[in-house]
Structures
1.
Amino acid sequence: MTDPIRVVAALEEIADRLEIRGEAFFKVRAYRRAAQVVSALTEDLALLYQRGELDQLPGIGPALAQKIGDVLTTGTCPLLERLRREVPGGLLDLLALPGIGGKTVGHLWRSLGIENLDALEEAAQAGRLRELPGFGEKKERNVLAAIAGLRRRRERVPLGALRPVALALVEALAAHPAVGRVAMAGSLRRWRETAKDIDLVAAAEDPAPVLDAFSRLEQLDRVVARGETKVSAVLKTGVPLDLRVVRPGAYWTALHHFTGSAEHHVQLRGWASERGFRINEYELLGPDGKPRPVQAEEELYGLLGLAYVPPELREGGGEIEAAAEGSLPRLVSLEDIRGDLHAHTDWTDGAHSLEAMARAAKDRGYQYLAITDHARALAMAGGLDADRLRRQVEAIRRLNETLEGFRLLAGIEANVMADGSLDLEDEVLAELDVVVASVHSHFNQDEATMTRRVIRAMENPHVDLIAHPTGRLLGARDPYAIDVDAVIEAAARTGTALEINAHPDRLDLRDSHARRAREAGVKLAISTDAHHVQHLGLMEYGVGTARRGWVEPGDVLNAMPLDELLAHLGRN
DNA sequence: GCCGTTTTCGGCCCGACTGTTTTCAGTCG
């Protein structure tokens, strides 16, 4: 039986290809909507199928139920296969270009015979796009810029796409009887926001059977190189991957070596050599030239007279000096997090009810969850106007009476309009526990205008924090032009917190900005922006990013217990 | 393609913006 994720992917692919083919808008939307319904499902999709209850789901009738059933049992369906023959796959890449949608892709294909990114780039460079109705020179330039941006982003894959894959591979390896220890290394272990490849390190007395078993894993597309201790392969998703298998005695030095970063190693080896030590992939050699046994990474640093440097800090950003003088931060961890300050419900574009979100947060051991649905300017998401918001606040207050040891906070994600005003009146905002403000429109303002706009929003005394302050979508959209340092300065001055949006497609603020913010004394909120109960689990990505920014629990708004948080927000 | 105290056809979350137009199509959230 196929994974529900495959079903969602198939429905979305059908929608994309139908749209390119010029199919009726509402038909396309029916497939998109079905994909959303399936992905938000809390019941077991396969079970619903077996009971013949798929067409009970909202937006799913006999035709879609049939197709979902086909995909569940066979991995595909006749319509999808036909569309794959009729619509070139290269056109799907074009949909990822900002400013290009299904209709335009269809025109480009039918009028100019463009079937992929390269052909589009060539046509734009040759000035052939402006021949199309609705196209001009400016749009042609925008297309070229969009292609360049897409290429730049695709060199590295967002952490959120690779980490689960790496964890699954680690799990598969750990199950092998010959494997002692195994872990992911490289930039994934350092929680870097994107990665070029997956690095795994394992310990085994005899590497050969482990390498054999690994080479046969179904996730691999092909093995590129195979040596005594190493396999290089490419996953079916096209991501390169290295596994090294070393003898148990060399595991910790190998893990450390392959965790990096290169810059950290350069500095660490410099420090070590000044003290007569040498470090390589397999061992730590003392001033006497003899290897020192290393049973953990802590020991490696300890033998060199340094405090343990967590992987997230190993970037050559002053961590060696700090480890030497004992001034490394006590990094925030998942256990410090007491709640989540940015979440959506089915009152707007979230998948689940207030109660379901509250229960999920409570089950995670949280003390609180802020409901911050979209405000009215985000019309497509069903943004709340003052009346509906007040009704939601009432519903939250009522629900709180039934939730023991847990509190839903009534909030809003207000839109920062083009001029920096908000799309709800101050008197409404004053009734809320927490006000999150964010930019969802006019992304292409110049830097000065955008910066003034966000700062004006922070100057509103009701605004508690700015969500995803730079607006980027990893691998999809560059940040808008904004002077982050000016925003940090204004945040410090106005006492406004800045969000580290934990969604792995955002991670915004990014690590380096988070570090500058905390140094300026700005409070940070690590928030998931959950639109689904499962998104609450993305918190670890935000924490990873915060750790890379040297963030301590005391810097984090949602590391505060409820009463302290309410006092900080000025609401008791 | 789905759906129905607007019920078997004719609707289907909506408003702003952009780049192209001279009244609008396409995109975005």
2.
Amino acid sequence: MNTSHRHTRQRQIVLEELQKVTSHPTAARLYEVVRHRLPKISLGTVYRNLELLHRLGVIAKLQMAGEEARYDGNPRRHDHIRCVQCGRVDDMAYPQLLDLPVGQVDHSTGYRILGYRLEFHGLCALCRQKRESEASSPVPFHTDHAVPFNQPRE
Amino acid sequence: MNTSHRHTRQRQIVLEELQKVTSHPTAARLYEVVRHRLPKISLGTVYRNLELLHRLGVIAKLQMAGEEARYDGNPRRHDHIRCVQCGRVDDMAYPQLLDLPVGQVDHSTGYRILGYRLEFHGLCALCRQKRESEASSPVPFHTDHAVPFNQPRE
DNA sequence: TCATTATTAGTAACTATTACTGTTATTTGA
DNA sequence: TCAAATAACAGTAATAGTTACTAATAATGA
């Protein structure tokens, strides 16, 4: 069984268009963009190639909490911040976590640690301004792990 | 319009059963457990109450990357580790992130930062042993943001 | 060039979750 | 205490993101 991957026009263009942008598009959004160059491409093909490129480590797949998956042409380790209002995702600089025994077995949990995901959430500049001009309206839903929220259990 | 919440047997038992366990069950799993006490409860009721209790800050909703949502009877801020093989989720102790201007506007991104989510991934003790006994087989899929993975872009 | 087969387009199926609808039962206050 | 008001319910249908299926197409190595 040959496990090599063929070089197709569809795969090439999906990768090219993803690498052009910094907006962390969803599969559906990237599909729209790619269709300008390949009108007959199917959404399934976009999904399949994104998944393959992700498995190969060429791109990154961002499955943020409970949201539609987004893709990132930059596979290097970096973190993201997501707007809780509009879903926009941007890169966020944060130093790597310290004292993480990656590859080692963590003795408190028994897990062999492979890595981590760190995602910030907040209000993007646009949604922040919109909210401020509309006066007082609280955060629309409970954003898990908001730092000020720290009440004791029972 | 009265926005108070009624105290129903269904809501009470969903909360009780969630608070009994430390296994971070999915809605479907909790539904199975709750049915032992309320055979006629519907899955929608479990979902609705979990969502309400989450909004009220009584429980935590863990929407780990791309996975089925899990619920945690402990709403205090803490982090989790997920097994990339079997999906199991455990608590993981890690100190709070430093130098995070929560509530402030981050000048590099323009976001008002509200909080963050930190999730580790790895192999739980069981899956680790299973894998070791089956000899060499690599991690089945690309676990995003694995720390050793750090190649330059393009 | 040709045979092999990975990949495609198009579509159907799947799954977690939410919405809808008529019924039930908690709440409230007369 | 009792009954009106309505939040919440059970049961079911709908939604949305994603994956699986199938016959046709095209990339690849001989």
3.
Amino acid sequence: MLDLPERFSITTSIAYANNKPGLHTLYEVIGADALARWYRMCGVPTRFLTGTDEHSINIAQAALDEGRPTREFVDEKVALFKVAEAALGITPDRFIRTTDPDHVRVAQEMVRRAHANGDIYLGTYEGWYCPNEGFRNVTDVVETASGTICPNHPDVPLQWLTERNWFFRLSAYQERLERHFADHPDFVRPEHRRNEMLGFIRGGLEDFSISRERTPGDWGIPFPIREDGSSSEFADGTWDPAAGKIYVWYDALINYITGAGFPDDPAMFARWWPADLHVIGKDIARFHTIFWPAMLWSAGLEAPRKVWVHGWLLAQGERMSKSRGNFLDPIDFVAAFGSDGARYVALREAAFDRDSDVSWDAFTRRYNADLANDFGNFVNRTVSMAGRYLGGERPAPREAAESPLGTAWPAARDLFVAKLEACLLHEALAALWEFVGAGNRFVEVEQPWVIARAVKAGENGAAERLRAVLGDLVEACRLVALAVAPVMPGLAPRVMEQLGYAHEYAADGNGGPPLLDELRWGAHAGQVGMLTAPVPLFPRLEIEAALPGEIPATATGPA
RNA sequence: GGCUGGGUAGCUCAGUUGGCAGAGCAAGCGGCUCAUAAUCGCUAGGUCACAGGUUCGAGUCCUGUCCCAGCUACCA
């Protein structure tokens, strides 16, 4: 069916820990978690890294404005992320924070390597600085009668700042980047994002600054090198403040190799790097597909194998964001749809390869149609009929070739897997739900209740036919619940229990039998088991009871 | 401004090399009774953004126009 990799190393971008998380931020994490779980269940050693980005000047300023220590401020925000991710069933192998001590060491090591390789040099960075947004490009500011202003914050006076910064020689990597894109056509996906990045590279690359002279509250990773090239570390282990801080973007990207074990654990690093997949949003594609490979090459390391660029969640055409206030609180979302339901509707309702308009209404309709009506009811009617007509002993499926569902299954499964591995998670789920539809239609065609009456009437062969039909239905329930387990990890154990099967996977998807073996029609045909009484999996939601069609404004303040 | 996507049913979208406009959801009608008012079937719903052109034939190819989104260098 497919060739599984020998290991799978996947990351998300790290979230900016300045506020509580929105669903639009965790959407990417849900998708990556589903992919990580897929590989874990397939028996592929998997490492899934996600976390938080904490060294930004804005965060330091926000903490300062609240009169609190920056560390306390970010600890609080990170705790909110962890609570929300736990509610969504997110299972990273490491939750990395850029304030983690090992990450601080790795970022400094990367600076030293770039310096040793002649890729960084001292220069001057100057430009308009908006206290709310940082340095603004000349094309982003507006000239007015009262002076130059930032269009987003017209009341805040812009400052012309000059900083002595270290610069990274990105210009030296233009040719290598072009060659890398040519040699690895799948490096950036989807295709149109790759084209954008390629266009940017061909337009000529400028060097970028990787240090800041000063930061609010002295926040950030100490730049490990002084202007004269000497180490900025004092004998007591503290750092010379005059050396400045590492610019937050340079620091943030490096989390991916910290999380892979660089450089303290070479064996671990060799095992997990290069990452197989970075899952990121379209707004940060350039940093991941252009700056980041160059940074790695400068340090003598490999670029990640693939970067998947997803789109945004939109509410009525507008990007969901904390600053706009049109975002969903993941806790509310889980409260309404359940952890599994929330994961499913998020990944099914939004396309993973482009922007998607979402609404509470659409999520509710999707939940009712796909989960309550189609699949939940399919399992319910199957378990109910098998229990009622066969007394609870689990009927075995027929040979695939003798069963319409058994015949249809391989194509549905293969399409599901192909879409999943292509990161088209919404299409993967759609492919699987085509098969759920086939299951429901099969019930109508066979009408087991009619066969059951024939059995009662003593009709010849009716009992055998009833067992066969119900066996096929039970098998269809098993296959769909297992296939969709990476997306709805809590569902599979509940379905398996009702079907009288063991579920041997751990909470994070590790440890069970290879999923592809389990996804064969009739994989457990010989096993005896008892069905339980039917228990509804996804209670139907009343649209009226749900929030109105608008995305509720739950913002607590500016981002 | 330049470059790249897109505009198809009320909503979300699919439409391969040009060959009778499709799916899901929502709506209406009917069937069934195992099931969570569910499910199955049927119906309705379209100036394929607009105007030209090529062609026996255009949602698809070409030209122009309008609209939306993205990219066009350091907030993260």
4.
Amino acid sequence: MRRPPTAVFLKNMIDLLLKLINDAATAYAGPGIQVPMPGIVVPPNENQGDFSTGIAFNLAPLIKKPPHEIAAGIAKNIEGKTADMIAGIDVVKPGYINLFMQQAFWHDALASVVEKGTDYGKGDAGKGQKVLMEYISANPTGPIHVGHGRGAVIGDVLARILSAQGYNVTREYYINDAGNQVLSLGYSVLNEYYKSRKIDIPVSRQGEYQGAYIHDISDALESAFSPADINEEHIQRITEFSVNRILDEIKEVLGNFDVGFDHWFSEKQLYQDGSVSRVIGELEKRHAVKQEDGATWFLSTLYGDEKDRVLKKQSGELTYFASDIAYHENKYTRGYDLLINIWGADHHGYLPRVKAAMSALGYDAGRLAVMFVQMVRLTRGDKPVAMSKRAGEYVTLKELVDEAGSDAVRFFFLQRSHESQLVFDIELAKKQSQENPVYYVQYAHARIVSIFSFAQTKGWHTDVLKQNRNYAFSGQEKRLLSQCLLYPGLVKEIAGRREPHRLTHYLVDLVGILHKYYTDTRVVDSDADTEQRLLLMKTVKIVLKNALDLLGIHAPEKM
RNA sequence: GCGCCCGUAGCUCAGUGGAUAGAGCGUCGGACUACGAAUCCGCAGGCCGGGGGUUCAAAUCCCCCCGGGCGCACCA
């Protein structure tokens, strides 16, 4: 058997196949026709081939011929040129081109995956573009809840995927540590402190936050303040103390959830360094501001928003919108090619004004992309769980992760499109924890590890497995390999379209094929082909491990 | 009223122009004296909310309607 040159090994076999189809289609279409990149799928039935492309459908409107005729023409161009890669071509019904691959193709494919190892699935589609991803950014006025958790996982996984595809990603959490909300937190804590100690001192303001965590913070006050200093005169320091306590807890919860950040960006800093007033001044200079009813307005209607928005209230206070403008302006000045925000769907009405402000300041609002994550509705059984942050009655992310485990919660959130609402039944999540799909996937990884340790006890040298290129892969084995071969293209597509949930579905599909194969086939046997089957298992394991890493889910050696 | 999202199997959801529409859970019935049964196999379950349209081809695109969620602050 002829061994392909090293360069071929380093190349993804699917990419080679796509190029081959593309070349054949280009030759068929003739000059002046821009042939789109062909898509490739594994057809539903084995007798329909190993791979299938619908390129003829895409070409039909361009060259105005029936798909079937085009498919036949392209197939003819493929034939003959590729004896070492393609064993047979079928042109079927509406216009599919079905491809049957040579055994050599499968051996090359397997070798290329094994050689890439942990790099398999990585790519350079991002071309080093700088991306800032902002997600969660929950107010530090209370523990983060499951809705934040959903955004956290989606942001975290997308960041991992973009990084793997050659984007230069920075992850950021914007802390709303200025303004009315956090001050209210401070007052809540102070009032609670007096109340729990039965101290009767009037406070000028009630806080709006309740719950055990307020009590906990109030209890902790004495660790940082002498009792004589715990009063309204020091409300700023008490507020700061409270915010820091909550931020510490948020960081701890996120740490246990494997969600990380490069930067924690403080809103307060934007006030302290003058950014907020500067940016308002800049808008004034650009004639995008008016004074009316004693307030200062940004003329966002000039830039497509439904109505103008207040920057400074009658009271003289600045709105959160004002600091949000400063924050986003700051992002632009840091030189990112792309800004991705992950917001709760209840904020969708907020986007036009932010984009309007960026346009008004002369920035390209098109570089700001917001993914709106739909609501999570919690139930216990069929009873809805009341979610009221102010009343302090809601299920926290910490509780959920403690109950179901980080891996399961992440996987669960990643099975749904971020654009779909989801009902999270806590009872069900607990009850079904053993049958959760995440275990299905993780079990496959543990199973392969187990196969390898068994093979070693049988005397196989699993670290120096040698390919036998005369080995003929079975139909099931080719299915397993072809699924593995689709992986890099999938990761690339997920990065481009920002659809992280597709990765979990891919894994469930892959693992389904694996488990069935395992049931039907004895991997470790006494025959020489054991080595080839072990190589196949190694291939699958590489894909599983790499994909689980992108999901931030543990790939266990045993369960 | 206007805007965004959703409506697919009993439930929770994938599939967004192409081959007989899929998975998990739930029901029922099978498979362990050899590599992990957290697995596998089988049965049942769908006018893809409804109606028009575009197309060789529609769950997918367009229009209208119905139903649900979320927004529409000098709150965030």
